[in-house]
Amino acid sequence: MTKQALIIPFLQVLGYDVFNPLEVKPEYIADFGKKKAEKVDYAIFKNDIPIMFIEAKAISEELGNHCAQLERYFNATPEVRVAILTNGIEYKFFTDLDKDNIMDENPFFRIDITNFSDPDIDILVQFTRERFDTDLIIKTAEELIYTSNLNTKLRELFKNPPDDFIRYLIKDFSDTRITTNVIDRFRPIVKKSISIAIVELVSEGLFQREEKGTTEDSIVEEQVKEETGDTPEHGEEVKKKSIITTEEELRCYEIIRTLLTDTGRDVSELRCKDTTVYFGIYNKNIFGWIVRINLDSSNKHILIKLPVEKAESLAPGFKVEQAPKGQGESRILIESPDDLVQLKDLILECFDSVSQNN
Known about the structure:
It is a single chain. The chain is an alpha+beta fold. It folds into three domains: 2-138, tt1808, chain A, CATH 3.90.1570; 160-211, no CATH class; 247-357, Aspartate Aminotransferase, domain 1 (Alpha-Beta Complex), CATH 3.90.1150. Helix content is 41%, strand content 18%. The protein has twelve helices and twelve strands. It has helices at 2-13, 67-76, 118-124, 134-159, 163-170, 180-204, 206-210, 216-228, 247-262, 308-314, 339-342, 344-357, and strands spanning 24-29, 39-46, 49-56, 82-86, 90-94, 109-112, 270-274, 279-283, 289-294, 301-304, 320-322, 330-333. A six-stranded mixed β-sheet has the order 1-2-3-4-5-6, with helices on both faces. Strands 7-8-9-10-12-11 form a six-stranded antiparallel β-sheet. α5 (163-170) crosses α6. The radius of gyration is 25 Å and the shape is flat.
């Protein structure tokens, strides 16, 4: 029941055709050593090569007791670099960062479908049929592991700063010899200073600015600033970002919805989502985004998934550029929402392409 009601729909959301035995192979045999006829619950294939194993357990089972079984499947198939252990609610993602072709003991990513965040979705989208890239996933896995370890280290460092750290911080403004007594005297001062500094950094939004490029929203925002020079004038107060859906953005949604309706497309599941850096329009689910619209910068534009050559043929008279990495394929510069009417053929092609993938 877990497979039928939870895991199969999960694979469908990721874009895999669960009814295609060449793409999703249930009970896939993965022999290892003397163990014969070992079967992994699902093997995901791409271009006739296995790319991901999924071991399923009942929803009532704890996952920690079953890693050895999945490890045998993983180790038996060198082509596979990604393995998932799941009970339908919790999904644990493994790879082989420690030793080649030997599944790591700990997962590099976990997600609970009853409680997940936007950053979780940004990571999960890499496992979709459309975006799956083993090298990119391994790179992401490394970053997640290092970030997690560094986060733990920094928490401990800030919570209980060691003597060497305190000595490093006070050496430039302490004229006295830094003895153990001096370090003990400065320890509560250092801890208080760390707390104040962290609060100030968070309130200023510095962490968000420094982490640009880790999510799709951040990459788009950084790209816009680089190309348009949208930075505050000297002395001008930097305004905090907030999500404000404008009338122009809603007009874009209505124009696209009307274009699709007038041409007989099914728009019953057409939705929109606003973020701090773009206004997205998608069909059925957020993975099926059709167009992302940015009207806030001086260079207004839309982002789509069609390659540049295709976009140029469907958008005569408009400037078409390569989209920022990871943000689709093409970017078309526009002047106002009304330009979307002239881009009718382009919008229809984007919708049809996404609908087929969905």
